[in-house]
Amino acid sequence: MKKISAEEMDSMKKEGVDTSKNWIKVGMSTCGIAAGADVVYATLLDEAKKRNIEVAIKKCGCAGKCFAEPLVEVNVEGVPRVFYGKVTPEVAVTILERHVRNKKLVKDHIFF
Amino acid sequence: MPNKVILVKETGAIENKSIDFNTLLANQLRDSGASEKASIVPVADIGVYDKGLVLRILPDNITYSNVRESDIKKIIEQTVLGGKVIDEIVHDGKDKQLKIVLKNCGLVDPDSIDDYLKAGGYQGLKKVLLEMKSPEKVIEEVKKSGLRGRGGAGFPTWMKWSTARNQKTDQKYMICNGDEGDPGAYMDRSVLEGDPHSVVEGMLIAGYAIGASKGFLYIRAEYPLAVKRIEKALEDAREYGLLGENILGSGFNYEMEIRLGAGAFVCGEETALIASVEGKRGTPKPRPPFPAVKGLWDKPSIINNVETLASIPQIISNGGDWLAKIGTATSKGTKVFAITGKIKNSGLVEVPMGITLREIVFDVAGGLLNPAKKIKAIQTGGPSGGVIPKDYLDTQVDYENLGKLGSIMGSGGMIVIDETDCMVDLAKFYLGFCVEESCGKCAPCRIGGYQMLQLLNKISSGEGELADLDKLKRIAYAMQKASLCGLGQTAANPVLSTLKYFEDEYKAHIVGKKCPAGKCKYLLMYKIAEDKCKRCGVCVKNCPTQAISGNREKGYAIDQAKCIKCGNCSEVCKFEAVGKE
Fold it and tell me: Which of B24, B105, B258, B568 is deepest in the core (most CB within 10 A)?
């Protein structure tokens, strides 16, 4: 049993969420999963490993844009942080190659 | 590498459509020698609607709307190269949403307690247990915030807590109401799935405030993912010592359990929910005594909605005054709405109280699904609420204003209705829902609801009489006055409010035997217009009942006796030759 102390809580708060430089988040609530987010998530994990692309891939809750699910948020150093909507496994691979590796935004899939 | 990005999106009608703006933009960028400095990215949705050509320059985050060909040069020179804002065409991109309850949804990994802690989670609990050290102070802070129950009725949260706090007894219970049942509403599900720890923390703080040592999370069984995530959250909180005995060394003990609802809408009602947690049949009891005095196993119990509880941690960490600054005089803070129906961007929105319905529909949610159609009304509050006609779209959203219009804030379902929706049909849908979900314990709800539904069926099948409208109203008032619980008391609201604002539509069904929206199938006829028909025969192939006869020479006709009014023929006709009357 590892109990947390008040000091540890404060230092975690100070650290903040998403401290890694490059990350991808996939909305994995019921709305996202119904639209195929679980497949997109699995594809991202698989393909990133296969293609040797270093990026933290996380799941998160629904950001509210249920009409655009599956929704994927991408933050890569040197590129503006954006949401990609209606992401298919094919688009997910494009995101990895174009956005994460080549640092260019993927056309026609950004949702604000 | 280009250091700027120009996002481009055509929204709505654009003058001079023949021009390919992307090419034009690319050419002008090249001519200005800026190709290296910026790249052009067409996007799927830019968050601005019906404003012609919209450009957004990143990372400056400057948005221009209604951009014309003549503006492009200026934008490249001044903004892309110069970094300056051109005031004439800049779009006020202020986000009308304000995320408090949904703050962490989409930010944290719901299965990670570390993520929640890193986002500042459990700081409210820490403040309560280690700094404030007084339940009264906690209640005082919630009182200052002006928070009212987000489940629908809008009862001040502090008042409930205070009542329970003042009860002298050996045991009190805290209950989270996650039995979200309104058709089209799923705010609670999203919070439970996207940020479960905020609800757990809210439950801990509330439990401390009222003096409870045990909490129940009542979640409907139809939300398996929410249940899984809450289970994980409880497990992790227990491991970190944030749940269980002597939490954070403060001496406060608190345990929590999950209870699954078995799919009865009435179990969202406090007393029925309590019966269900006790393992009994979920039927309501008369109040008083209120659950805050005599609730679960006859002990003082507080039931708060998921959204109410999820906003507690931030009220404590930021102070009650912080929330009180947001909203209107009587309703503070924000409200999450699940916006669905004939809307472009269906989903969850969290807006400050006091925003107008028009802003929610047209600015936040992008306007109507089919912009060619006109908006007719908005339905709020689910089966307990009512419709708000388009003339009242500029109403500021708060508990009182929506109540005055004959609707309610409700739990947060918001359904946008356009001119193709029939109000009698809508009333029938909601009433039908309540009739099915009525527990049957009290006569006004059980019998009244059924009789009203029969009358509505009669009207929508063209058999209605004008006297039926009075009958509907009389039964509705009886149900409001005499039903045992909120379900029966409010079940007639959709009928009463559609009758109030759209009586003409009811009368059109009764007197004119017509459904103006073309929804009620007994009142409409599909007909083939001879002049428009090209005699292709597609309708014949798509008719499931072989009701269309004829041939390519003579043309086609629909046999009304065989027609089931499914509308297939009208949908498949490329020449719009099949119309409804």
Answer: B105
